[in-house]
Please model this.
Amino acid sequence: MTPEKLRCVDNHHVWHPFTPMRAHAREESPIIADAVGFELIDVQGRRYLDGVSSLWCNVHGHRVPEIDAAIRQQLDRVAHSTLLGLGNVPSIELADRLVRRVPEGLEHVFYSDNGSTAVEAALKIALQYHRQKGDRAENRNLYVSLAGAYHGDTIGSVSVGGIDLFHGLYGQLLFHSVRVPAPVAWRTPVGVTPAEYLADCDRQLEATLREHQSQIAAFVIEPLVQGAAGILVHPPGYLRRVRDLTAELEIPLIVDEVATGFGRTGTLFACEQEGVVPDLLCLSKGITGGYLPLAATLTTTEIYDAFLGEPQEGRTFFHGHTYTGNPLACAAALASLDLFERNDVLANVDRLERVLENRLGRLATHPHVGEIRRKGIMVGIELVEDRDQKRSFPSPRRTGHLVTLAARKRGVILRPLGDVVVLMPAPAMPPDLLERICDVAVEAIDEAVAAR
Model:
């Protein structure tokens, strides 16, 4: 198809996720046809630096020879066979590698296809675990999570999320959950200091867990930073506090590392930074280096053993997907893990952190930048109409989206969260490319806030 024909078909037939389709058709967004390194190339040959890692999943860049070769070699063997009653070599090898890399004690790997399904599986495992844990069996069906949390788009993951829009639309479909305040103190109630607000968050956390202890199936959290909530960074020690309370009260802890995993916070997994071992760990996005859909939910032997028994006992985990443990995706994941070690990607993340700190410093006093939030190489720049009053821009203005359009003209792809401009470089990106992304982001912000 010609570029014009592709545009016509795209506008008429392709329903894009999280996209206002009428506006999308007007704006003629790039149609990507090619990629190399850390650049995307559209059908007209225009090149764009990938400033959001293809929605936070790309790790080593595009067309990486080692991952390409791993997928091709697997294609010469088998592209897919089911894990229902059968095994396959790459899924077994990957499970072995993951168990050796995650916090010690997580020894069992359940595969699925994406971050939402990784969380969905964890929620169902927790519910069934309580009903099957021998002489301690309980009927627990309440989940606790943080305000503003995002854990995915399937029904269970929406239920434990804190997105008001989702709950307003799909509330009749959701199951029981309760949220505690997120420990983020940029905007606080009138007359309340940040320290007082954080202390109250801690009190509400403990009070909620103790009040509902006998009902709670699991506590669900993104460790250290809430990604899609606007890159909300938690104070040091909060994750440790959650782990200590949930362990004391025998509440399973689900740590959602779909966004934070595979180097984006500075360590391979964010929970390592506070010495936390969850009962269930959810992984996706960067697991294959951003190549193919794959997710994993890892759990402890204590939880796994509750599902063991003879077939007629009905203790099986009745959950699965056609492409669970797909050999091509697992082969890509194995190659990606090799590259983490061979190229010392975590050392490069440290270099990228310094670039972000230095290059974005000029925004610290910008009249329309309310706050710059960063954990590792996850960055959120919150734009405001009035910095002193912390007053947001009117939502119809779509200021964050205006930044996207301004950056696109300068050859950089960004995608905001409302009026929070997100920078999410690939962990293996060369520092000089990130410097360019930062410079373009600053220019694009200046253009967007000045627009009439």
Q: What stands out?
A: Residues 68-342 form a domain with the Aspartate Aminotransferase; domain 2 fold (CATH 3.40.640.10). The radius of gyration is 22 Å.
